Amino acid sequence: MIRAYKFLLRPTVRQQAAFGEMLADHCSLYNGALQERRDAYRHASKTSVTYGQQSAQLKEIRAFDVERQGRWSFSSQQATLRRLDKAFAAFFRRVKSGDKPGYPRFRGAMWFDTVDFPKDGDGCRWDSTSHDPVTRVRFQGVGHVKVHQHRPVAGRVKTVSVKREGKRWYVVLTVDQQQPQPLPATGSMVGIDLGIAHFLADSHGEFVPNPRHGRKAAAKLEAAQRALSRFPRVRRDQRTKNHQRAVEKVAGLHRKVRRQRLDHAHKTALGLVRAHDVIAHEDLKIRNMVKTPAPKPDPDQPGGFLPNGAASKAGLNRSISDAGWGVFLTILQAKAESAGREVIAVDPRNTSRTCPQCGHVAAENRPTQEKFHCVSCGHSAHADIVGALNVLRAGLVRRDAQPAQREAPAFTPGRSHLDSLHHQA
User: Fold this and answer.
1) Which of 222, 263, 343, 403 has CA atoms 20 to 30 A from the CA of 117?
2) 211 and 109 inside one domain
3) Contact 37, 31 (CB under 8 A)
4) Which burial class, exposed, middle or buried, applies to 319 when counting CB atoms under 10 A from its CB (0-12, 13-18, 19+)?
């Protein structure tokens, strides 16, 4: 299996300058290749330039510009051209499928932060066998850079990337390693219901609170953005020192919130993976959930619009994005794969409106955000717990139906829904 490791670099002042020059030169190569494709399509009878043609020109480019392009790794420059080729392939795929095309754009100085090295030992070298207690990684044109290696790297290093985040530099390794040993079986199965009031509720009746990192940092972020707005918009090379500090302040706050959100997602996912063999969750379409509501034209007033709840929907979208459901589900899937656990995604429709006792489905079963009360049998519970129970049931039905092609089990009146699931399993 392929696994990624990310370590903080400790470059010297001279090495930081060399890293900056590396990013600038690769960005220039990316933009030049993009301009060549645009010109060929516009002025040469809609001719398409391929990656192979642009890669064949690298030798001439490196020989012509020895001081800039000639000092960096040939394979890393090929990786930059492949990145552009993938961007165009994604563009044509979106055009063909009818999605928003999103034509590849030129990258500015702050929009190009990563340089990839497709093979360890070709332009870079991860020095894992050194007798020096300090781990180092070597980059062509930069030298040996100290690495803050906070955990061992298991497996064979395949690719190496250097990445800039603010004022910090990181090295990202992709490692080919053997499938790890699965965790011991616990015999436990759980369904989880993601929410905003609580980050998640499980079918065992436990809740994980929503940390709301973005909301907690909103006041500081608002003050930093207000301070930044006082400066006129100018090019990056024309910014004053105070302007640069204001920009770095806003970016630093956003990075802190992102790291906090990732830390919470990792710890929550790890707890679930260690405690349960089977984890069922809702297959949420988060991108559709955070869409802006469509405007409602006023039929009585041409050019006017009726209220569409956009303000309240904006607050809900902000809360959904702050919770980070998509990041959490991705991390959960990766950790479960490494631990030998099973993760099942189920259809989220009516999971919080279905009674776990009698199976009655109605919108009136959920009178409030937290309360569930079945209008048929009178069963009452927390709405999120009910949703988690129904998610677990649907997950087990899907798990059993795929290999055995059996019909979904029916509800058994008078018996606890979760007991019925364990009985059939």
Assistant:
1) 263
2) no
3) no
4) middle
| E-assigned strand segments in 11-155 | 114-117, 124-127, 136-139, 143-148
**Selection from 208, 195, 272, 204 nearest residue 421 by Cα:** 204
| Owner of token pair 């850079």 | 145
Cα separation, 344 vs 342, whole angstroms:
7
pLDDT in tens, 17-44: 999 999 999 999 999 999 999 998 888 7
Measured from the Cβ of residue 34, the count of other Cβ atoms closer than 10 Å reads 20
Chosen domain end from 176, 208, 228: 176
Partnered with residue 26 across adjacent β-strands are none
Determine the pLDDT at residue 129: 63
Nearest to 272 by CA among 333, 225, 217, 319: 333
Judgement on whether residues 368 and 220 belong to the same structural domain of the protein = yes
pLDDT score at 127: 82
Contact predicate 129/120, CB 8 Å? no
Which of 128, 150, 176 is a domain's end point? Answer: 176
Q: What amino acid occupies position 251?
A: A
State how many domains the chain has.
Answer: 2
Distance CA 8, CA 168 (A): 8
Residue 403 within a domain: yes
Query: Long-range contacts for 287-293 (Cβ within 8 Å, ≥24 apart)?
Result: 289/317, 289/320, 290/317, 290/320, 290/321, 292/317
Distances (CA, A) of 357 to 22, 274, 353: 63, 29, 12
pLDDT digits (tens, 9 = 90+) for 383-408: 999 999 999 999 999 888 766 444 44
- Per the structure, the complete domain to which residue 62 belongs is given by 2-176
Whether 208 and 258 map to the same domain: the answer is: yes
User: Do residues 107 and 214 share a domain?
Assistant: no
